Amino acid sequence: MLAWRRTSDSLWEERHLRDVVEQCLRESWSRLFGYAVSLCGDRETARDLIQSSAVKALDTNAPPREPAAARAWLFRVMRNDWIDRGRRATVRAADREPVEPTEGPWAYEDARIAAITVRQGLDRLEPYQREIIELVDLAGFRYAEAAEILEVPVGTVMSRLSRARLALLEAIEGGKVTPLERSRGTR
User: Cross-referenced NCBIfam families, in alphabetical order (predicted)?
Assistant: First the structure.
């Protein structure tokens, strides 16, 4: 009877932990996808990466017990998956899928222009700079969580983020980004 109870308890705990991971995946899917795009450089590869990472996260034997820790853990699983795939090669901005404004007079709202400008500015950054901005500024991780995901000290996160923000500002204000100009070769 005691052996059955332990088995029953462990099955319940395993299901509970899987539910925690599934819930976190649902809540974080769009941010995970944004981070995957920043890692991979294109949407198609990002889709493959996020699906592969979700399968790995769901198949793990030791996910975090706390929902708060699960979010950072998912980003770390995806980053490690990306590293394992050998996608660390630098992706040139010219090879990346361009972000274009929508057609029509209503399309040029300030928020859209700002979003396009920032995305194009991010495309001009080095991959490690894009990654830190995606984690802290776009995905909303605290410095300690980003440090855990990247497996670096908190001070390194802070210095990388500072330099990345300056590089983004330089890309945007330095005239390297033209949000309303279409890329060559499209349409």
Answer: sigma70-ECF
84 lies in the same domain as 110: no
Tokens at 99, concatenated = 């972000």
Structure-block tokens of residue 55: 């399968």
Q: Walk along the chain (187 residues) and give the pLDDT tens digit of each residue.
A: 444 455 555 666 667 778 888 888 899 898 899 888 888 888 898 999 999 999 988 888 778 877 778 888 999 999 888 888 764 444 444 455 555 545 555 545 666 677 778 888 888 899 899 999 989 988 889 999 999 999 999 999 999 999 999 999 998 888 777 665 554 444 3
Instruction: Give 94-98's long-range contacts (Cβ < 8 A, gap of 24+).
Output: 95/41, 95/42, 96/41, 96/42, 96/123, 97/41, 97/42, 97/43, 98/182, 98/183, 98/186
What is the DSSP annotation of 173-184?
HTT---TTSPPT
Q: How far apart are CA 80 and CA 98, in angstroms?
A: 26
Are 77 and 8 in the same domain?
Answer: yes
**Residue 143 exposed, middle or buried by CB count within 10 Å (0-12, 13-18, 19+):** middle
d(CA 132, CA 135): 5
Domain range holding 15? 1-89
**Who contacts 8 (Cβ-Cβ below 8 Å, separation ≥6)?**
none
